[in-house]
Amino acid sequence: MDDSIDQTHAELAGWAHPGGRLRQAIEKDEFALYCQPILALSPQASGSERYPMAEVLVRMREEEQALLPPGEFLPVLEHYRMMPQLDRWVVRNTVRRLAAGSRIKRFTINLHGQTLEDVEFPRFIAAQLSSNRVSAEALLFEIDEADTLARLNAAAGFAAAYHAQGGKVLVDGFGRRSVSFAAIKALGADFVKVDGAIVRKLLSSEVARTKLGAIQRVGKALGYAVVAEFVEEQDILLRLKALDVEYAQGFGVYQPHPLDALAA
Question: Which of 129, 230, 231, 257 has the least C-beta neighbours within 10 A?
């Protein structure tokens, strides 16, 4: 076996073993929550709020208050099947922020495929919401299309359980490969986030515009709202408005900020 692979595995084991760096970070609240607001493009989507929701993002605190991006620690958590522990931490601390008061009334949280297989997770969510007196309407769970199709029964089971609590779910990364509506139908999705590979090409590709048009038409029939992600140019934002897309998210809309700075 290659020496570099051996070294990498040893580093991962050191971070994740009992008492290791990542377990310590979860137990001692050494992660930080950021969020990226999502812009409402139509009056029907916004109600009275320009940014009616925001996606929760997680960072890890390191020495001297440096923050590690997700790409530095998520692969380790995935490797050691620790994502359900992190997802619980994110839910717990997001609900606490909502309970303390928040200018942003709804947060979206990404769920990992490993967490979908945790049959206790919906009960954990219900307990957190109940004990903090927060409505399920305030949390929207994002489930990646690929995770949904790979774990169809688990994903559908979670969606049904959360819908029963009064919450809503979103299919993330939609159209990354091909446009199939199997994941949306399986979850009874309330929102669909169109993959950036489509959104970035809206100005230059008729294929991208056709895909988005199809997603919009089916959305009207199935009753889901559309969020365009990775919106980085104002011209794309204008095109999305012209196409009657309900929501937009990306660096051209609003850059990520510490959750407390935006919510408080």
Answer: 257
All residues at 6 or more sequence positions from 135 whose CB lies less than 8 Å from its CB, including other chains: 129, 166
Give φ, ψ of 198 to 5 degrees.
-80, -45
Would you say the pTM of this structure is higher than 0.85? yes
Kind and range of the H or E element at 182? helix 182-187
**Cα 250 to Cα 237: distance, rounded to the nearest angstrom:** 10
Q: Taking a C-beta distance cutoff of 8 angstroms, is the pair 53, 107 a contact?
A: yes
Name the domain count of the chain: 1
Boundaries of domain holding 86 = 30-263
In a domain, 204, yes or no: yes
Distance CA 92, CA 130 (A): 12
pLDDT in tens, 79-106: 889 999 999 999 999 999 999 999 999 9
Type of residue numbered 33? L
CATH code of the domain containing 43:
3.20.20.450
Q: Are 22 and 77 in contact (CB under 8 A)?
A: yes
Alpha-carbon distance of 94 to 259, in angstroms, equals: 9
